[in-house]
Inosine/uridine-preferring nucleoside hydrolase domain-containing protein
Amino acid sequence: MKKRVIIDTDPGLDDAIAILFALGSGHFDVLGVTTIAGNIGLDRTTTNAGGLLTFMGRGDIPVVRGTDIPLTRELQDLVAMVHGMDGLKGIELPEPAKAPLDGAPDWIARMLAESEPGSIDILALGPLTNIAHVVTEHPEVIERIGEIIVMGGTIHAPGNSGPSSEFNFASDPEAASVVIGSPVKVTIIPLDVTRLVRADIAYVAALPDTPHGRLARELLGVYLHNGRESRPLHDPCVMLAAIDPSIFKIENMKLDIDLGDDPDAGRLLVDRRGKPVDVALGVDTERALALLRTGFV
C-alpha cells in the first residue's frame, strides 16, 4: 500500500533526487509538493518543483507556494556555493506544466481535514516554516497528521550553519521549535546520519538508464564535491526512512531548540524537559544506497 504524503521542500539538488525517488519508486502517493524558501528563493524552488513533476509526467500533482520568510527572523543568505543560483547547478528542467497554487499552510490543512485521520505523512526537506504555520493557524487538523519526517538538526556531528546547528533548523529556529513541540509524531533525520550517505562515482555511473535515472546521474554528477563522491544525500534519507525505518538506528530523545541569537541558533538541545522525538543516530549506508537505487528503475 502506497504511503500518502505531502512533500514540503526547497529544491535544491538533494531535494531533487529525493523527489525523483518518491515519484519513481512506486512507494508513495504524492498528494502535493509544497515549497519553501531555503536553499534558494521561493520563486526558484517553486519553479524547480514544478519542473521535476513535469519531467516525471506528473502534472496532476499540485505545486503549492509556501512562505518566503521565517516566522520571526530574516531569511538567511542563499546556499549558492552548493546548489547554484538556480538550485540545480545549471541543469535544465522542462517548464512547469501548470501554474502553482498559493497558500501552502492553508492547502495542507485542507488536505488533512478532508482525509482520514493519520492517513497523510508530511516529508519535510527544508526549513519548517510552512508546517509551523499549519500547527499555529490550524490546530484542529494537527492530530490528523500521521507523522512528520524531518531532515534537520544535528546531535553529535558538527553543524553546517553554526558550530552545532544545521541549515534547515537554523533558517527558522522558531518554526523548528513549534513543529518539534507539537503533539504530532516527529522523526528527525539529522546530519549525524545524512553525512554518512553519499554516492560515489561508480554508484552514480551505474544508476539505471531510465529517463529519471539519467537525470539523477546528471544531478549527482554536479553534486560530486571531490570528483569521487557526492556531498551528503540529506533529503533522500527522509524518503528512505519513510519506507524502511529499519535502515536507521532510531532512538527516542527529549529535545528542545536553541532560540538564541548566536551562530548556533536552531541547534538541537537534549533536555529532559523537552518533547520526546524519534531521532536517527545511525544508518546502514549500504542498504540505504541500495534502496535509493530502486527508485530509478
In short: The first strand starts at residue 3 and ends at 9. The mean pLDDT is 95. The domain at 3-294 is CATH 3.90.245.10 (Inosine-uridine Nucleoside N-ribohydrolase; Chain A). The radius of gyration is 17 Å.
